[in-house]
Amino acid sequence: MSQQEIVNIGLSEAGNDKLDDLKENGIFAEKMDGYRFAVALALAQGAIAPEIGKRSTFLNVGSLDPDQTLRRAVETLMPEQLTETTPYRLIERLADWGVNDLHAQAKSGGIDFVRLFDQVAEKAV
């Protein structure tokens, strides 16, 4: 791996603003909850998340992923994407993708969590 692992994790500046909006509108109680959900959504959807431009950090990796569950999930589900990046840099990209998707859903009538869970269940079969 050519990059050094990050210690503080975040989103694009636009993604961070959107995550703030999701929290302020009561969709998630804490930004960390929304961030983790966004990563899980991106993983479940098999998203190929683009690079993030200017990033806004807000959380220490140890606080977000104390037992390294997110790291292990990315290493297990997306090993081919880790050839040019590190697990937590990829997690940032996945979170940004997920936050953008969730924010778009929220703005276009609301997030249908049941439908999202059903989609994941269908892919798991």
From the structure above, extract its key features:
single chain, 125 residues, mainly alpha, two-stranded antiparallel ribbon, 6 helices, 58% helix, 9% strand, globular
What does this structure look like?
There is one protein chain. Helix 1 crosses helix 5 (about 85-105) and helix 2 packs across helix 5. The chain has helices at about 15-25, 30-45, 60-65, 70-75, 85-105, 115-125, and strands at about 10, 55-60. The termini are far apart. It is globular, with a radius of gyration of 14 Å. The chain has one domain. The protein contains six helices and two strands, in the order βααβαααα. It has a two-stranded antiparallel ribbon with strand order 1-2. The chain is mainly alpha-helical. The model has no long low-confidence stretch (mean pLDDT about 90).
The SS-based structural class is mainly alpha
Order of helices and strands: EHHEHHHH
| Termini gap | 33 Å
Classify the beta-strand content into a percent band. Answer: 5-15%
User: How many alpha or pi helices?
Assistant: 6
| Largest sheet, strands/sense/barrel | 2 strands, antiparallel
Q: Using the CA coordinates, give the radius of gyration.
A: 14 Å
Q: How many β strands by DSSP?
A: 2
Any low-confidence stretches, pLDDT <50, length ≥5? Answer: none
Structurally, the number of domains stands at 1
| Broad shape | globular
Spatial sequence of strands, sheet with the most strands: 1-2
Helix content: 55-70%
Estimate the mean pLDDT confidence. Answer: 90
